[in-house]
């Protein structure tokens, strides 16, 4: 997702505001139909998917991100700016008369080394978004939260009633964002929170690129403790469908989202290997040795794998999606394995272009392996 670093950028650097270039509030009728939407983090991976879907559905979109947004469309305005800039957001809200904010901007723990900046961007930025919505009569904020609200699984699907218990800074920042929207600004606008597991889609790279490189080169793909854990993903397209379904939801709500029929990690990896025609095999590392080693490597900044990845590799985590299916009529369309195969094929088909990418979000480039490269050489 697009980050918000970049205070000091020229306020409102607008490289597209419509066919004639005028930054004016264009007609958008009340009630169901086309909406004017403020999209934070529009240059990021999820932001780009949402932007495309909103435009295809006929909505008008203003994207705010510190990164350059490549989108070009007569109903799209792209603003380079920081969501912590209250003046910028207030000016945009006054000019465009937004109905909804899709707030997906966030800094990721593995993408930045400055913990204070991550907290400020994710938490203070959310407070500015909330204040803007209240002060300018914006009806709704739809917010991406995370399964990082929990440090471990509960031994069963996690429901909306389960109390969050994050163990690392990204999860804590997402919980703080939820509390700002749901508690501090309760009653000022409707909030829909979508608690997401790892988003997987064609074009999604980041840490997944490490797995894909192992498979492409026929290396052993390692699991922890036998790979019998079930860890839920969500397809990017399915998450976008949930955002669109949340538009105009008449109440404040919190929903867990994710795939159905979650396989074990070993089973999912095996399907990717088979689809790739790779000579890779799925291996297993003992949990009692692997998890402490990952912790030490992360503390020494030798590995990109942090507490979130320890859990994904070694533990179960699945959201109960009963509520979102009932309230929004939403259904997932892809399984974990289908998502991974699609993302792997994109990685292979675009390998040369991916290696040359610069200035893109963390999800659109391959993560630095660090010490994991040694593991690859030995696999």
From TrEMBL:
Pfam families: Epimerase (PF01370). Residues 1-27 are annotated as: Disordered. Residues 37-252 form the NAD-dependent epimerase/dehydratase domain. InterPro entries: Epimerase_deHydtase (IPR001509), Lipid_A_modif_metabolic_enz (IPR050177), NAD(P)-bd_dom_sf (IPR036291). This is NAD(P)-dependent oxidoreductase. It comes from Nakamurella flavida. The lineage of its organism: Bacteria, Bacillati, Actinomycetota, Actinomycetes, Nakamurellales.
């Amino acid at each position: 997702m697009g980050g918000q670093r970049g205070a000091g950028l020229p306020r409102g650097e607008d490289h597209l505001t419509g066919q004639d270039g005028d930054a004016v509030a264009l007609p958008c009728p009340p009630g169901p139909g086309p909406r004017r939407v403020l999209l934070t983090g529009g240059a990021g991976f999820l932001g780009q998917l949402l932007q495309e879907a909103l435009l295809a559905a006929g909505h008008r979109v203003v994207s705010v991100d510190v990164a350059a947004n490549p989108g070009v469309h007569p109903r799209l305005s792209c603003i380079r700016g920081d969501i912590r800039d209250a003046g910028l957001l207030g000016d945009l809200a006054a000019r465009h008369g937004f109905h909804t904010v899709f707030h997906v901007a966030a800094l990721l723990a593995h993408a930045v080394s400055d913990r204070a900046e991550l907290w400020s961007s994710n938490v203070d930025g959310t407070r500015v978004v909330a204040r803007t919505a209240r002060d300018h009569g914006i009806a709704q904020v739809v917010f991406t939260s995370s399964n990082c609200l929990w440090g471990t699984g509960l031994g069963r699907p996690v429901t909306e009633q389960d109390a969050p218990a994050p163990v690392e800074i990204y999860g804590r920042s997402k919980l703080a964002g939820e509390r700002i929207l749901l508690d501090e600004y309760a009653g000022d606008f409707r909030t829909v929170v979508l608690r997401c597991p790892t988003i997987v889609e064609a074009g999604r790279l980041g840490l997944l690129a490490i797995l894909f490189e192992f498979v492409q080169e026929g290396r052993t793909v390692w699991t922890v403790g036998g790979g019998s854990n079930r860890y839920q993903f969500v397809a990017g397209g399915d998450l976008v469908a949930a955002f669109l379904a949340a538009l105009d939801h008449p109440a404040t709500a919190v929903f867990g989202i994710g795939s159905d029929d979650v396989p074990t990690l070993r089973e999912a990896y095996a399907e990717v290997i088979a689809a790739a025609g790779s000579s890779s095999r799925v291996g297993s590392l003992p949990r009692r040795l692997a998890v402490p080693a990952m912790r030490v490597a992360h503390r020494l900044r030798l590995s990109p794998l942090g507490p979130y990845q320890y859990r994904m590799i070694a533990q179960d985590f699945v959201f109960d999606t009963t509520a979102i299916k009932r309230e929004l009529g939403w259904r997932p369309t892809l399984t974990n394995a289908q998502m991974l195969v699609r993302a792997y094929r994109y990685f292979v088909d675009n390998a040369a272009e991916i290696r040359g990418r610069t200035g893109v979000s963390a999800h659109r480039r391959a993560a630095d392996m660090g010490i994991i490269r040694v593991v690859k050489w030995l696999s």
